[in-house]
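User: Fold both of these, please.

Assistant: Here is the first one.
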Amino acid sequence: MNKETIERIRRFTAERDWEQFHTPANLAKSISIEANELLECFQWSDEEYDLEHVKEELADVIVYCQDMLDRLQLDADEIVNKKMDQNERKYPVSKAKGNNTKYDQF
């Protein structure tokens, strides 16, 4: 996300004095709840869904993830790149390309 969007999320939270409720556990619960609301968009069909509703629920997940990053003083680029390094080792192109098998079953 760009800096302006991140600052908007932070300002929204600060103006409402919601930081006091943003414990890591509460934020993890909120991320899970919103992710399940996103999943609900596809409950009865993989092809027929309301894209606007999907965007709203996905945005909720992203906002709570940014709140979690802030609470734990984490850098999104740093943690994502670290995880991608791990994923690239676990799923080498030579074994994983076009294959949905879990890494420990190659």
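And the second sequence with its predicted structure:
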Amino acid sequence: MARVCQVTGRKPIVGHKVSFSNKKALRRFLPNLKTKRFFLAEEDRWITLKITADTIRTINKRGLFTIVKELRSKGVAI
């Protein structure tokens, strides 16, 4: 469970690697994970999240405090 986004839960998926001759072999598509520190102004402290690059845009759009509040309601310790 190391390659999982803490906010969205996005994880690796399985698909085919297709060669020029159209032979198919299984491969894994890994999420674009980043370890990012955010300053939570409401609590005056830094938090570190392991999130995808797409989730960084979501946090910018909806606000960090809203995301943290939703995570805490689900029972995630931050």
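The beta strands are 13-18, 24-29, 33-40, 45-52.
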